[in-house]
Structure prediction request, 266 residues.
Amino acid sequence: MSTALEKEWKRLLAKEEKMFSSAENRKETKLDEKIKELTGKIEEKIPEKLSATLDAAFYKAFLMIFEKGTGVIEKTFKGDELQLEFQVNDFRVDKKPTKRSLRKLEAVGKKSKLLNSAVTTVEGIGLGVLGVGIPDIPVFLSMLLKGMYETAASYGYDYNKKEEQILILRMIAAGLADGAEKRKADRLVEEWLGFASATEALTFEDEVKRASAALSNAMLMAKFIQGLPVVGAAGGVSNPVVYQKVSQYAALKYKKRYLAAKRQNV
Prediction:
């Protein structure tokens, strides 16, 4: 087996374990304590129904985009170019796996992530200043899925398939999970990828609900703040944070999936 392929595989596994350790062993700083105290005061003012409202808003946005919006999202990036670039990079890996050829695959997705993150910041802050909170969810979700689609395409996977959409939904939930919950959420992703035996069967609607709840929990406070005029600009800052967590996790998993397939074929 290729030495470069094995080194890259071990590097990825180490990176994956570091991600889990960081989530499980993170120690609170004084700043964290102050933020927690502040957020506690804000949480007291959040209406009880807002969580359910956010869950429903994300759920409806997911269904709408998967059913009618994917074609619109595809117009915002050059899918054909990503596919061609993947084929070129994949050919290089097949011909001679090297550190450079393997990292080329990773580089393709990074270009779009930087732009998408910047756009989610502007979109969030802009709507926040206007006092818009929940109505911008389809806009943000479209940007998040755009990044997921680009990552999938850069590794040669078809995001239009229902099965791939389930993987994307599981990645969103796992990317936003924290602490010990991260490994639990990650196991569902590993099960889909075939790296772990399946423990439960979930319907597509269940998957959408899980991803919606994860996004709702991650953005609950920010969306409450974002719904307030002027102060809402602070809420928009959460958009790129959520985007980065999900996109970094997805990039790691897509690369693991790709490398696993290559290791089997060598």
Remarks:
- DSSP finds eleven helices and no strands in the chain.
